[in-house]
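Bit of a strange request maybe. I'm writing a small parser for structure token strings and I need a real example to test against, not something I typed by hand. Could someone generate the tokens for this chain?
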Amino acid sequence: MRSPRRLLNSILFLLLFIVIGLPFVPLILSSVSFGWQWPNVLPDSFSFRAWEYVLADSSGTWSAVGTSLLVAFIVTAVNLLLAVPAANALVRNSFRGKWLMEAIIFAPIVIPPFVAVMGIHLTFLRLGLTETILGVVLAHISPTLPYMVRAIMISYNTLSVDWENQARMLGAGPISRFVHVVLPHLLPGIAAGASLSILISLSQYLITFIIGSGQVVTLPILLFPFISGGDPAIASAFSLLYAGIAVLTLLGMDLALKKYYQNKKAATAKG
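Reply from user aminoacidic:
Good idea to test on real output. This should exercise your parser:
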């Protein structure tokens, strides 16, 4: 039984690697190519000039990476503070107009961002929030918050109120109940929502460009000009760097979550 199962797992892993890894092969070749033109299958010559430009201090890459991560993590933290009580209210309470509230929260998923960002831009102009990181952070909440709310709602749907009632009967206060009963159960949903929030925030170009007005430079702001008619090699290098940052961020969150559960399991075993 083990041999066929191992073979099946190996085949599935190979297929997954091909599906995920194959699109990166042209990017890698393009990032180290010089004058790669259609219909050549492989580049005529190779050069690391694109990576030298991308990794140079003068390109502003590392400043853009820092700004992108700063905005993404602040947006995710704000989303978490808003999504937990919102998910709790939507799952555990029935009130008049609930469907309308859900429609407003999840509307950014189906409404194109350009529609909302123009109104946001006019408002932020009056408030003096354009060309600032704060303005970009507030604008990024609109397309990212629905995913955080939805992920935490799924976790809340599997959380029984009886568990909290038992903790209340044992003398636990509201904060203690949330920390020791609710939060551990919500962590997988929080991790899933945070992952989506970070990825969506990192990928925002239009919102960042309009609200930031070119003064808040993130990685997509640097990447887009090279994609839309600039240097394909530099665009490929930026794309690979962006993908690497996204993957490393998600791996870091996954490792932190696993570490939390390992520590919790060890503490429970000692107790």
